[in-house]
Description:
The chain is an alpha/beta fold. It folds into two domains: 4-116, NAD(P)-binding Rossmann-like Domain (Rossmann fold, 3-Layer(aba) Sandwich); 166-261, Orthogonal Bundle (ProC C-terminal domain-like fold), CATH 1.10.3730.10. 52% of the residues lie in helices and 14% in strands. It has an eight-stranded mixed sheet, with helices on both faces. Strand 7, helix 6 (138-148) and strand 8 (152-156) form a beta-alpha-beta unit. It starts with a strand and ends with a helix. The site of NADP nicotinamide-adenine-dinucleotide phosphate has 25 residues, from helix 1 and helix 4.
Amino acid sequence: MSSIAVLGCGNIGLSIVEGLISKDKKSAGSIFATRRNYTSLKAIADKGVQTSADNKKAVQKSKYIIVAVKPYRVLELLKEITPVLKKDHVIISVASEITIDQIKATLKKDIPVFRVMPNTASSIGESITCISTKNGTSKETADVSKIFQSIGETVVVDENLMEAATILGACGIAYVLRFIRAMIQGGIQIGFDSETATRITTQTVKGAAELLLQKGTHPEQEIDKVTTPKGCTITGLNEMEHQGFSSSLIQGIVKSFEKIEK
Ligand SMILES: NC(=O)c1ccc[n+]([C@@H]2O[C@H](COP(=O)([O-])OP(=O)(O)OC[C@H]3O[C@@H](n4cnc5c(N)ncnc54)[C@H](OP(=O)(O)O)[C@@H]3O)[C@@H](O)[C@H]2O)c1
């Protein structure tokens, strides 16, 4: 893999760097991580990553430029590095809501631009990262996918789906965690202490996800296996539906989407 600069190495930037190093320790020397308070990056510097506050220098030493500052800082940062950007650089923006066209208009150079959306499970290598581009080649798309496979799975989508990707993939973590919290609360009410309810719930959620991932089945196929006629599972499930479970989740996702689209 060619050298990579991570500009704005905060939460998500650091997850990416840590993911890259954990997959390949030797890659540390070809990673350049920046933030203004770069001394806080000592842990990755100790592993061989080159850390500094100098964005331009990091860009000059790298091919893939991951822009991981907050969205309101992205265009200002791009203006700062534009003088040192060359044709063989590849820009990868992690920022939500900043479009490829906005990035290209700021750069005013014909450089491949990718827009990607990981989630916070990147810190444990379990992100799903949605990737989109308008002018990246298939080789560059494969390379960008490889970078983000260091923090989990990847999927390439059209740019017009990136807002939806933000809702389903990045905000999705919060929806699932709220579901898990509710299940733990139910578990406590029927007799478990919090720690045991959490253990049973989290492993059950993990197991349910793995069933679909590993078998490629539809959720309803797996549900059918646990719903005995007249049994307790179907009774509970139907009550949840009467109370608006699926409808509430779908409406919440749509509301989040309407909010991001404004
Ligand atoms: N967190 C997530 O789950 C998530 C998921 C998907 C996408 N994103 C996107 O990822 C981006 C970063 O989010 P985050 O949560 O990682 O934010 P964050 O923790 O605040 O990280 C951003 C970092 O940028 C640094 N920074 C600010 N100005 C800089 C500059 N001029 N040059 C270099 N570094 C600079 C800041 O450090 P200093 O103050 O030390 O400079 C900070 O550590 C956002 O655009 C967000 O939309 C985040």
